[in-house]
Amino acid sequence: KGNGMIGNIYSMGLALQALGATSRFYAPRKWDCAQAFSVVYGHDYRLPMAIAQVLPALVGRSYLDAAGLDCVASTGMSPTLQMSPSPTLGTTEAPITVYYSIINKLQGRHFNYTTSVQVPGGSTLLKVLEEAEKKKPNTFSFKTEQTSWGPMVVSINGLAANTDDKTYWQFLSSGDALQQGVGTYEPRDGEHIEAVFSTY
């Protein structure tokens, strides 16, 4: 993409490793390393899996280098990474309003429901889903499964994603797919999030 993103924020770590490890095979076309790394530096990675994939690229190595590492020789040579401090626990931010829609125009009984919920600023999208479910449990019920990338929404309003049908719940903001999962994405005040039952 033009802004340095390769796939999405979760695929960046492996993409940077692959491009770094195989860069000599990309002549004469070069990829913009600085632009791609600026995307990584500008993102606040919180999921352990995402950190594990991006960290090797940040230190100039890839998973391919692991087999040839001499751990004894590199003792004490670990690079220092600047980490942003975590938010102070117990702080509360002013509440924000988030508009949330669930849309199914794909299978069975079609539906399109919208609600607005208030959550503390800095809340994740998962909190928005929980508040919507509390407000209207018969309409905005949902289920998640825990993955190594965090919670994944597998069912909304009783309609479950299905790998056989190649269906899933896609989350959008202003028509664009979210680059983070429900456990890490933090909606803005007044933002309208849509969960659309989709196929791939």
From TrEMBL:
GO terms for molecular function: cobalamin binding. It holds the Pfam family Cobalamin_bind. It is found in: Secreted. Keywords: Cobalt, Cobalt transport, Ion transport, Secreted, Signal, Transport. Residues 122-194 form the Transcobalamin-like C-terminal domain. InterPro entries: Cbl-bd_prot, Cobalamin_Transport, Transcobalamin-like_C. Cyanocob(III)alamin binds at N8, Q53, L178, Y200. It comes from the Eukaryota. GO terms for biological process: cobalamin transport; cobalt ion transport. GO terms for cellular component: extracellular space. PANTHER family: COBALAMIN BINDING INTRINSIC FACTOR, TRANSCOBALAMIN-1/GASTRIC INTRINSIC FACTOR. Belongs to the eukaryotic cobalamin transport proteins family. This is IF factor.
